[in-house]
Amino acid sequence: MAAATPNPELMAKLAQHRSLGSAPPAEHAWLATHGELRAHPVGHILTPKGQLAEAMHIFFSGTVAIHIDRGAGSHKLFEWRGGDVGGMLPFSRGARAPNDAMVEEPAEMLDLPTGCLPDLVRECPSVTATLVHTMLDRTRHFNAADLRDEKLISLGRLAAGLAHELNNPASAAARSATFLARYLEAAEAAAARVGAARLSAEQLESVNAVRALCFVPLAEPLSAMARADREDALGTWLDDHEADVACAESLAGTGVTLEALDRLAASVTGDALDATLRWISADCQLRALASEIQTSTSRIAELVNSVKGFTYMDRAPSPEPVDVRKGIGDTLTMLGNKVRAKGVEVTTSFADALPKAHAVGAELNQVWMNLLDNALDAVSNGGHVGVIADAAAGQVVVRIVDDGAGIPPDLQGRIFDPFFTTKDVGQGTGLGLDIVRRILQRHNGEVTVESRPGCTEFRVVLPAERPQG
Questions:
Q1: CA angle in degrees (0–180, nearest 5) for 389-390-393
Q2: Which domain does 221 fall in, by range?
Q3: Which of 224-233, 292-301, 419-428 has the largest mean confidence?
Q4: pTM above 0.85?
């Protein structure tokens, strides 16, 4: 049976094709006789989301693109124009389309059915070599896009968590600073009245004895009811001695006792006692506010340092000795608001002589962020997440265990696949575990999972930093 004569117009298109034009005419003829020339209008879906491409597409004109939104905003993931080759390629793993591949400009292409690919490899070695390079370039592009999107999503999670973490100490510091000016004015006015009272040395000694109790912390924090009872008792004492009852609120959180106030009242009386108590109250409040500002700003500084440690913002992205304990600690700080919101108990256990890992610190922290964030999502309110790190045979082994519902056995083999997620629509990108796997592969490490109802364990193995010499 005579071979089909290739269409001269199609042969000319193949000869001018940017990617395949340099192939021998005999290979162009093979493509022309085995493929089908097709044209598609704008809006045509070439490959639906979640499906495998049914052909290799040799594009002559037009534009086909895949848009996707992984939580960082919709953007163009990939596009093919005239001169490109897409769809199913020889030696491809057969990844499913992450979203619809849609025609954006009227497109003309030569479609070669996937069943012809084995014959293509045998009959068209030049075209095959070009297609292998095309597939590698496409893989690199997808991997880079996946990593970029996951970094943006991680950055969004980091920013949201940091905003929650910073809000409380920042609000407390701002609130205390506002009250500081008010109590400073009250202290100055009370101090003027005390000065006008011309207290004796003995009276000043009794005043300073009460002031000193302002610096003595209570044995344990008061409950709301206990504090209210203490304020009532102090208020009653102040009222009985014709002093400002409002002072009770400031004195209630200090070590000032009714017995100490009785000793003061035995030495200082009348208007001088009221002035003295106002001054002591304002002084106690000023010191309490200053302490709260110091505590809040220290917490903010601690959070900033955790962010710097988590992101390695002052380090070049190159492998170095990485303290796994610190990385996990910084990650848990970033996730602190989520931990508290769900009432999750998080425990950590690190070997005493845990060696440092040889890794890029910022990338390794992205691994901890994804695994810990997934564990927190998996557990119910009040659940438990445990982190255990140990060393074995020159490796660092980290296990992240949660008591969630577990991963169904039929899905455990797919959780590391790109775009696969067990979360609800809009809650997961299906990239986190794929990124974890790829990062660890680059670090000569690995991640495995074992799961059953009530216990899911992700096990990360990394090469330990070898001692010098």
A1: 140
A2: 164-304
A3: 224-233
A4: no
